[in-house]
Specification:
Layout lengths: L1 H21 L1 H8 L3 H17 L1 H11 L1 H21 L3 H29 L5 H12 L1 H16 L2 H22 L16 H13 L1 H32 L4 H28 L4 H21 L6 H12 L1 H15 L5 H29 L5 H7 L3 H41 L1
């Protein structure tokens, strides 16, 4: 019940996160925004989200999941309500920033509930299920929200989304507990220096950085596609209808669910092969995009389905980064580590989204050729992520080998002393 309530809050967070992606063209008309300015809406939201991850992790370690889930739901509902009622561009941008802040508090707080409420052997699969079931929020934005937006008014659609946020807040307040014993995490009075020292210690662990680069390389492509540029790309550049674009986003969620279950089983069964699974996901993403972008004209529908299915594996693939954080960090700083990992994919996403908006604007707006050029910025991030994964994996393995050697030596010395 606790996990399901937290999961509902995350579903609402994903719904709030993706509403502007499916209403991008309507937002451009409502606020008279160019492609580059429209990308600023989402980029600012993601900047706030990514920038708030480490503070959110520190707060999570001190105050627990319940407080942060409630606060996150309240912030997102407020932001969506403001966006529903305003026609001012500065206020609308500010509203998306508030949504990003609430979103930042939610996911890692829900994820923290899993190791506290379930036995260790079930954690990898349930971590995957948390991430992929949360993507049902994307289905809500692609189907009922988009239907409300096209069938009624902007205000009606966004007020409805704000109401879901209020529901999530009330349920979390009533049902979520930090631990089975109901303990509230004690808020210690830590100095700024102690907090910064703790953050530095967490970041310097190679396993944390391995999770960071894992999240970066796997998550950004599908995030950029679903959060901002997927629907305009499918409708304008590829000539698909708005309903078909929504259907493809729904396929993305279903593909992520299937991939997430498989990845959860594999990472739980073969923990020493997790990085190879991640590298395979990144390679498949780069390959399918290369095939689509190499075509001189529009891709057939079946190839677009393949594209959506393949890049959707990046969502559950990014969850392996949180598994690295859990494996190589103590429980006391796990929230901070998870916040750092979560920054990876969203920093990459915001950079790619902004770069694509600039390139589209420079090319004269939405067209097949401009989108074809804009999507190529992904290859820079994939290269950086793969290099980061290989280096931090090597450092992590070397550290584990040193720890194992030290443990064996200490065991030998104890045996010698006893003899």
């Amino acid at each position: 019940m606790v996990w399901a309530t937290g999961l509902l809050a995350y579903v609402v967070a994903v719904l709030d996160r993706t509403t502007l992606g499916v209403s991008g063209l309507a937002a451009a008309d409502r606020f008279d925004a160019s492609p580059s300015l429209l990308s600023t809406f989402v980029v600012l939201q993601v900047v706030v989200y990514a920038g708030a991850q480490v503070p959110a992790g520190i707060l999570l370690d001190r105050y627990g999941s319940r407080a942060l889930i409630v606060a996150g739901a309240a912030l997102m509902a407020s932001g969506q309500l403001l966006l529903a009622l305003t026609e001012s561009l500065p206020l609308a941008i500010s509203a998306r920033a508030v949504v990003g802040l609430g979103d930042a508090l939610t996911f890692i707080s829900v994820l923290r509930l899993v190791p506290r409420w379930f036995e260790p052997r079930r954690v990898p699969l349930l971590t995957q299920l948390t991430g992929i079931c949360g993507q049902l929020g994307q289905v809500l934005s692609a189907l009922p929200f988009l239907a409300l937006l096209t069938g009624t008014t902007w205000a009606t659609a966004y007020v409805s989304v704000a109401a879901f946020g209020v529901l999530a807040m009330v349920l979390a307040l009533a049902l979520v507990k930090d631990t089975p014993h109901g303990r509230v995490v004690a808020a210690e009075n830590l100095s700024v220096g102690a907090v910064l020292s703790s953050v530095k210690t967490v970041w310097l662990r190679p396993g944390t950085r391995l999770g960071f680069f894992t999240h970066m390389g796997t998550q950004f492509s599908v995030t950029v596609f679903c959060l901002m540029w997927g629907v305009p790309y499918l409708t304008v550049a590829q000539g698909q209808s708005a309903h078909m674009a929504g259907a493809l986003l729904t396929i993305s969620v279903l593909a992520a669910i299937c991939a997430g279950i498989l990845i959860g089983i594999l990472t739980g069964r073969y923990p020493h092969r997790r990085s190879w699974i991640v590298l395979a996901i990144i390679g498949s993403n780069a390959l399918v995009w290369t095939v689509v972008l190499a075509l001189p004209g529009r891709a057939p529908l079946w190839l677009l389905v393949v594209l959506v299915v393949v890049i959707s594996a990046g969502g559950p693939g990014s969850m392996v980064g949180f598994d690295f954080a859990r494996t190589f960090n103590p429980s006391a700083t796990l929230g901070t580590a998870q916040g750092m990992v979560n920054m990876g994919g969203f920093i990459a996403s915001l950079l790619v989204m902004q770069a694509m908006g600039i390139l589209l604007g420079a090319a004269g707006g939405y067209s097949f050729d401009s989108f074809r050029q804009a999507w190529t910025v992904q290859y820079v991030v994939w290269l950086l992520a793969v290099v980061g994964i290989l280096i931090t994996r090597w450092k992590t393995r070397r550290l584990l080998a040193a720890d194992e050697e030290r443990s064996q030596l200490e065991s030998f010395e104890v045996d010698a002393t006893e003899r």
